[in-house]
Predict the structure.
Amino acid sequence: MKGDNRRQQILEFAQKKEIVKINELFAAISASVATIRRDINTLAAEGKIHKTRGKIIYVEPDRAPVYSFRDNINYDEKKLIGRKAAEMVHENDTICIDAGTTTLALAENLKDKKSLSVITNSVPVATILNDTDVHVFMPGGMLEDMCLADADTVDYLARHHVDKAFIGASGVSGCRGLTVTSPLQYSVKKQIIKSADEVYALIDSTKFHISGVNVFSEFSELTGIITARPIEDPKLIQVLEENNVKIIYVNDDLE
């Protein structure tokens, strides 16, 4: 079977079941294990599926996978990115933590912080920081994908100022900026950026292979990008340097 046909078969299999164990693909497709793994890596790089702990998750065009499954995607990278981002949070800071699974990893590393105020529209972030010494503030708004996102959320954020904002993204659109799939979260993310002195984007390596139509932030609006693996696109690196965006890598080695 030709590569294109084989990858299409994998996609159709994943689309039908949404979440597929990789061992199921080995049994269903007439090809070697090594060949199927290469096909999976190709589809993941194209943003058509996500890999996580022995499974693949189908990604509908211009849609993000369900929150609970996104939390498992690139889990090790997200932990390291969250730990690195926490190093930038200091005593007496007021920060905003955006919704997302990578920003959630940041919250995990803030539980022992003192004299810290956090504004967040993320229910999981607020839950993690509950019963700690961190002062947590949440806006109102409609609940969508475990976060609050509507006009009330934007109005609340517009009335507050923070020292630093830590934002997530659904993807990186070439050299244009950061994207998000949800129209409601688009407006919230834009306001978070406006309300902050410094803005850090927490981006795991899969996001550099996912584009999108809703660009909520140009690179010129960012202070830095925190990521785990070297950015492969030289044009993107050039654009970031031209806009004085710090590229902050975690120190730990990843396989």
Observations:
- Residues 3-17 form the longest helix (15 residues).
- Residues 65-70 have pLDDT under 50 and may be disordered.
